[in-house]
Structures are given as C-alpha cells and as structure tokens.
Design goal:
16 helices, three-stranded antiparallel sheet, alpha/beta, Aspartate Aminotransferase, domain 1, about 40% helix, about 450 residues, Aspartate Aminotransferase, domain 2, binds ligand F0G
Length: about 450
C-alpha cells in the first residue's frame, strides 16, 4: 500500500516540554519585546519557527558520539573524523573548523574582500553580506528573474542569472573577490539551485579566473530537489549529487547548524593551498588551533555523524515533504506564498497578504506579530526590516520582497504541531484587513532586525 501520510522516520526518545500561554499573556510579552520576536524569551514561545539553524534534534548516534569526543588540543581523534568526512563530501583538501558559518565567512571574506572588491551571488545571506560589506567590499545579488517573483513557479528558482554574471565579470575585471552560490538560496525563499546552473557558473568563473564558492549549509536539501527535478539525476544518490556540486567549486563555507544536524559548528573547505594558508593564519588568531578551530571534540564528532545522517533518503524525503505539507495547507487557505515551497521553510508573501500595509509600515513585521499573538508561533521577517535601507532624504528604500519565513527545525516538530500552525492561518486570514503595520522606534546600524524596537500603528 502507498500511504498519503508522511511519517517522521524516527521515534522520540527524549522530550522537552513546551510551555503553553494565553493570548492575553502573549500580547503582554510582545509589547515587552518591543514587537521584535528576537527579543522574546524562548520559554514564552510555543512553536519556534524562527530558524532551522542550530535547532535540530540530534540522533541517539550523535549523542553517543558526544561521549566519544576527544578533547585534545592538537590532533584529536574527533578532528580526524570530521576532517575525513568533510574531505570525502567536498573533495577539498583543506578543512578549517569554525564555531559557526559566519566565522568561516569572516575569515574567508576578510581575506578576499576589502575596499574596491566586488562579490557576486544568487543572493548573499545577511551575515555573508555583512561580512563582505564590513571589509569595504560590495555584495551584488543576481538571482534569475523568476526568483524575484514570489508567485512564479520554477523548479530552480535559486539559480543565478548567468548572463548578468558574465556582464558583471567583464565590468569588474580584476575586482571580483569571489562568486558565491548559496544552496539552497535561503533569502530568496529556500529555493534550490540546479546542477546545470552550478556548472555554468563554475565554467564562467574559471574563464575569468575568479574563485567560485558554495555557501553549502543546505546542500543535502538542495540535492533532494536536483534528484527530483533535474533530468538525468534520478539514479544518483543525494550524497553523490552533493559531491558533484562540490567538485565544481574552489571552496565552500558551511554553517553546520543546518544540514550537519548539530546545534553549533561550521567549517571552511578549500582546494588551493596558498589561500588555505592565509585563512589558517586568521583561523588560529581568531577561532583556535587548526585541529579544532572554534569547536570542541564532541561537536566535531556530532558534525561528522550528522553529515552522514542528513543524506539518508528516508530522512531527506520526510524533511522536504513535511515542509511542503505546511506550504500546501497554507496555499489551500489562500495564503500568498513563495512558490514552489522551498526546502527548509515556507515563505509567506506579506506584501500580497496585506496589500493595505505599505513597505515602510513593514507588512512582514505585522504578520510575525500576528502569528505570535494568536498562537505563540515565532517566525522571522525577511523584507524591509531585514534588508531595507534609507535613501539620502531619509525615506525607506524597501527590499525587493516582503517575506515572512516559517523555518522548520530538523527532526523537532511533529505533524500535529504543523497542523496547529496551519490552523492559526485561518484566523490570520479572517483578521487580514484589520491588521496594521509598524514603525521603527530604535535601530542599530548593522543587522538591525536583531535588536530594533517597533511600535504598532
Ligand atoms: N549562510 C546561509 C545561507 C545561512 O542561512 C546562514 C545562517 C549562514 C550562512 C550563517 O551561518 O548562523 O552558522 O553563522 N542562517 C541562519 C538562518 C541564521 O536563520 O537562516 P551561522
């Protein structure tokens, strides 16, 4: 028999209670947090869909690995395991362990960046952009046109516009620090990048003598889409697809908090010995010695195991299909979504949901606050709060899209949790025309979404 129900391919061995709350309590918590969910206490959240990063449930095998961790300062057994695993997966010789993805970004872009340099990506994730811009360099996003239209159905909406890439490489000859493919494209809706696109990008970069890098934190999820949607890939394993993609690149930056199924960690993998040496110097100064970087032995053990588990076909199939399940339910309710549904998250088009709220009143922030007030669901705005800038006259230059992300932690929530989320949207839709926007009352200069204060209008 072929079942419709997608079951979680694991049993629950250890549980963590969720504290339930009333709407009146949550209304108060929200005001105390200045209407910014980053300032809420996790104990006041019922379903936390703020991020899929560092929120995975580890397996019994990984917890056993934690006990096996070798905490030697130099040359630990756990480092050998992690290094071998990353080398096998990426085919890259030089592996630098870091405490999380952005530490690898800081090291690599700190070295490749600087004033006058240009970086090109399908879409730079916010920490990637910040690390690049912090060096004085410029970060340019060139997703394909379909990737900018939330409602447009396309199998590989994460792809890079290769015509724009050629033009930018010609215009910026001698100035390009690197070309970066983010797989899947997180800020662009968790959308996959095809192998054909990665091949084209790799070829163009080689032709111009420019480094081609992968931001590979969700590469296993990306591989699921390639196997499912790209011609000729049906017979290749998920891991084999990931290996093919790595084989095209000169380096890779990974936040292990995603597809390595751990709560903390990351790495930088490089082919070139000279570049690796420069980065290793920075690693030792700012993260730690080469055989642990920013990690304990036990973390490295869990990463090595997680990188194997994530390519398990039953896990990946459940992972992508359960994200699609939430997306499909919301779509049936008429919630405007980024389509098709991505790998780790469902992205709601808040501009289409609340057409009466203009970008400078932050429609995404309005939805984020509604979801928390109605159900204790924590989500994230990916729109003008996160990416908006100010014009010289002080008015807002809005971001291209006003999205809200429901990111699904790996192996954490069950189908009934997801049904609760979907049910909440029935009320969101009923309240739709009455929902109001926000104004910012306080903000820092960089990455303002983390700490900004808001006031309802
Ligand atoms: N690259 C991508 C594509 C990411 O999604 C993230 C993190 C990073 C780099 C940075 O990694 O957090 O380990 O330093 N994304 C998280 C998120 C924060 O919620 O999407 P990190």
């Amino acid at each position: 028999m072929k079942h419709r129900t997608i079951i979680e391919p694991f049993r629950i061995k250890s549980v963590e209670p969720i504290g339930l709350s009333t709407e009146a309590e949550r209304t108060r918590y929200l005001a105390e947090a200045h209407y910014n969910p980053f300032l809420l206490r996790s104990r006041d959240v019922i379903i936390d869909l703020m991020t899929d990063s560092g929120t995975s449930a580890m397996s019994a095998h990984q917890w056993a690995g934690i006990m096996e961790g070798d905490e030697a300062y130099a040359g630990s057994r756990s480092w050998e395991r992690m290094q071998a695993e990353v080398q096998d997966l990426t085919g890259m010789e030089h592996v630098l362990p870091t405490h999380q993805g952005r530490a690898a970004e800081r090291i690599l872009y700190g070295h490749l960046g600087g004033p006058g340099k240009v970086f090109i990506s399908n879409t730079h994730f916010d920490t990637t952009r910040a690390n690049i811009e912090y060096t004085g360099a410029i970060a340019i996003d060139i997703p394909i046109a379909e990737g900018r239209d939330p409602a447009h159905e396309h199998p590989f909406k994460g792809n890079m516009d290769v015509t724009a890439l050629e033009a930018l490489l010609r215009e910026n000859k001698g100035k390009v620090g690197a070309v970066i493919l983010t797989v899947t494209n997180n800020s662009g809706g968790g959308q996959p990048v095809s192998l054909a696109n990665a091949e084209a990008v790799g070829r163009i970069c080689r032709g111009h003598g420019v480094p081609f890098l992968l931001d590979c934190c969700r590469i296993a999820e990306n591989s699921w889409f390639i196997k499912d949607r790209e011609e000729g890939m049906e017979g290749v394993t998920y891991r084999g697809i990931a290996q093919r993609m790595f084989s095209l690149a000169d380096g890779a930056v990974m936040s292990a908090k995603k597809d390595a199924l751990v709560n903390m960690g990351g790495f930088l993998a490089l082919r070139d010995a000279t570049l690796a040496e420069a980065c290793i110097n920075l690693l030792i100064i700012t993260e730690g010695f080469t055989t642990y970087g920013g990690l304990s032995g036990r973390d490295m053990e869990a990463i090595a195991i997680g990188l194997q588990e994530v390519f398990d076909p039953d896990y990946l199939d459940y992972r992508i299909k359960s994200t699609t399940f939430v997306g499909r339910k919301l779509h049936e309710l008429g919630v405007p979504l980024m389509r098709p549904i991505g790998g780790h998250a469902v992205y709601i088009d808040a501009k289409a949901l609340y057409p009466h709220i203009p970008p400078h009143e932050y429609p995404g922030q309005a939805l984020v606050c509604e979801l928390y007030r109605l159900a204790g669901i924590r989500s994230v705005e990916i729109g003008s709060v996160m990416f908006g800038t100010y014009r010289p006259d002080g008015t807002l230059q809005p971001s291209a899209m006003e999205l809200v992300r429901l990111a699904i932690p790996r192996r954490v929530y069950t189908q009934s949790h997801m049904e609760y989320v979907a049910e909440t949207f029935e009320e969101v839709m009923r309240e739709r025309s009455r929902t109001r926007g926000f104004r910012i009352t306080k903000e820092p200069r960089f990455l303002r979404h983390f700490t900004a204060h808001f006031e309802p209008l």
